[in-house]
Design a protein that fits this description.
- With about 400 residues, this protein is an alpha+beta fold.
- It has helices at about 15-25, 95-100, 140, 245-250, 255-270, and strands at about 45-50, 55, 65, 70-75, 80-85, 90, 115-120, 130, 135, 145, 155, 165, 170-175, 180, 210, 225-230, 235-240, 305-315, 345, 385-389.
- It contains five helices and 20 strands.
- The two termini are about 25 Å apart.
């Protein structure tokens, strides 16, 4: 992670996770890096999760859609940068030095070695865009996918910004197996799509808590509970765990030798690597974002090395502001007109790709990929729609 107020590794991946997934999802069996090499392409992907949409037919039987407003920050040149500084890393970048550190006292550097890095030249290969499994040329209508002079990829907009943003169309008309982006004044009034809004996020969301089925994995904490109130009006409750006693590791029943090697490596990192060190190269343009400072917590005395904070609950802590920057109004609209009401299409269910590892964690977590275990998985399981370029 590379931000203004926190730098360093914040997450890890356990190879056993992929073996567990393959038990229920046989399509990925045998596709891990322990079984076949990785083929790395010089490409990037823009991906959105499933979202709701409104759809309705007009008096002629034609189908229309309304999707949430998607917006992209636009600079003074009418450009939105989507991907920049694409870098491919070999094991010479950090892996070899970090692995040597496991067997010695020679501290691994935090910065990636430039000799193990490659920055490929990008080319424009914007493939397709789909909504509800139907093709749309909307991006081509409003912007041109472009490789800019600094070898970054983005959109060159055809129209000036609105409040500094390039706006993706939110109204579509179905034509065969394709969706045609249309303007608001082209939406038939009888569909009521213009007046009807998608349900707003709840102003009183339910608390996130550890599932009761997995609570036994959370019992071996060293200290807690503690709380932190975040800038989004939520409060998190967390405990401090010895690294190898945290739930996502405890779940896989590592051997005593595996746990010892892993714990020793993490303690070396906590001792020698700091959240103010340089890890990833700075961006070639633009400014780094910052974490909410309340996410960066201080370990209790005696737990500074080898222990990590694990969140077990997140709940609303204060009244949400009346005005929230959302792609649709916060207030629910009540439709009292006799005209027909658009159908709310439900999002498809998403598969979890983390199980108990998907719990929230604080930015204090200074960990790295588990290099002690040899089997590493490579296949991503997701329930999202993918938009590729």
């Amino acid at each position: 992670m590379n931000t203004q107020n926190f730098k360093g590794p914040v997450a890890f991946s356990i190879p056993d996770l992929w073996a567990e997934l393959s038990k229920e999802y046989s399509a990925i069996e045998g596709l891990g890096l322990d079984n076949q090499p990785l083929m790395l392409g010089d490409s990037g992907t823009m991906e959105f999760g499933w979202t709701r949409a409104l759809k309705q037919q007009d008096n002629k039987g034609d189908t229309y859609y309304k999707v949430p407003q998607i917006q992209y920050p636009m600079n003074s040149d009418g450009q939105s940068t989507i991907m920049q500084d694409l870098t491919i890393y070999s094991k010479d970048a950090l892996f070899h030095k970090f692995s040597h550190w496991q067997q010695s006292d020679q501290v691994s550097p935090t910065q990636f070695d430039a000799n193990g890095m490659r920055k490929p030249m990008l080319s424009h290969t914007f493939n397709s865009l789909h909504i509800d499994d139907m093709y749309t040329s909307a991006f081509y209508d409003i912007a041109t996918p472009t490789i800019f002079d600094d070898n970054s990829f983005g959109l060159q907009w055809h129209a000036p910004p609105e409040n500094g943003m390039g706006l993706y169309p939110k109204y579509f008309k179905q034509q065969g197996n394709a969706l045609l982006a249309i303007k608001e004044n082209q939406v038939p009034s009888e569909t009521n799509l213009i007046n009807e809004e998608l349900p707003a996020p709840s102003r009183n969301p339910e608390a996130y808590e550890v599932d009761s089925a997995g609570q036994e994995l959370f019992t071996d904490y060293a200290s807690g509970p503690y709380t932190a109130t975040l800038n989004d009006c939520s409060k998190v409750t967390y405990y401090w765990y010895k690294f190898t006693d945290q739930p996502s590791i405890k779940k896989y029943n590592l051997t005593a030798d595996e746990k010892y090697k892993l714990q020793t490596m993490v303690e070396k990192m906590h001792t020698h690597w700091k959240s103010t060190d340089e890890y990833l190269a700075p961006p070639s343009k633009g400014n780094l974002v910052s974490f909410d400072d309340n996410l960066i917590v201080t370990p209790p005395e005696g737990l500074e090395v080898g222990y990590v904070p694990i969140v077990v609950k997140q709940e609303l802590a204060c009244d949400l502001p009346e005005q929230i920057d959302l792609p649709w109004p916060v207030e629910d609209k009540v439709d009292t007109s006799p005209i027909k009401k658009p159908i709310l299409t439900e999002p498809l269910p998403q598969k979890s790709n983390g199980g108990v590892m998907s719990i929230w964690f604080l930015a204090m977590l200074m960990v790295i990929r588990n290099l002690m275990l040899e089997k590493i998985g490579s296949t991503k399981v997701s329930g999202t729609k993918k938009k590729s370029f």
